[in-house]
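Researcher: I'd like a structural prediction for the single chain below. Treat it as a standalone chain; there are no partners to consider.
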Amino acid sequence: MSNETYTFNAELRTATGTGASRRLRREDKIPAILYGADKEAASLTFEHKDMIKAQESEGFYTHILTLNIAGEKVEAILKDIQRHPFKPKITHLDFQRVDAAHKLHTKVPVHFIGEDVVTKAGNTVVHQLTEIEITCLPKSLPEFVEVNVSGLVAGDSIHISDVKLPAGVSSVDLAKGADHDQSIVTIKANKAAPVEDEAAE
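Model: Treating it as a single chain, here is the predicted structure.
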């Protein structure tokens, strides 16, 4: 895991409902909810400028975050982010508390390496999945899962079961049975370019 930390200041809010949320957004704030760890859900508010910057980093979606709420530091993961349909605005955030003794159920991104080798050989890399759903204890949460495609040729594919997940990390799909072993990536041959008639002069 990366040593980079993600800490954000949040305020508790008492006013809830559609009207209150609209007022917050007009003030450039984002309404949010924090739940989980067998505790009562808390309604929060974040500064929009802080979150709009944070969401540009992949780690915002995959790291354990520290929320500074009225002086109390709470560890959480981002579970959902809602955006305005056409404006560059975040409209709502959902966070889940992290308990060191309880497993997380989340998604981590797939990082593909060696794609240049495949494309230079005249093939196309087709991504079937860009995230893998996993469960693990917070201490084992990976930033991403790496898939090396450099040794693949046309017709080859890599499934979830082919990927070596970090120690303590399990695939949610594979736990459902072999028929849920989805393809992550496949390699397709590019169509051959038409051969020119060299005899024609």
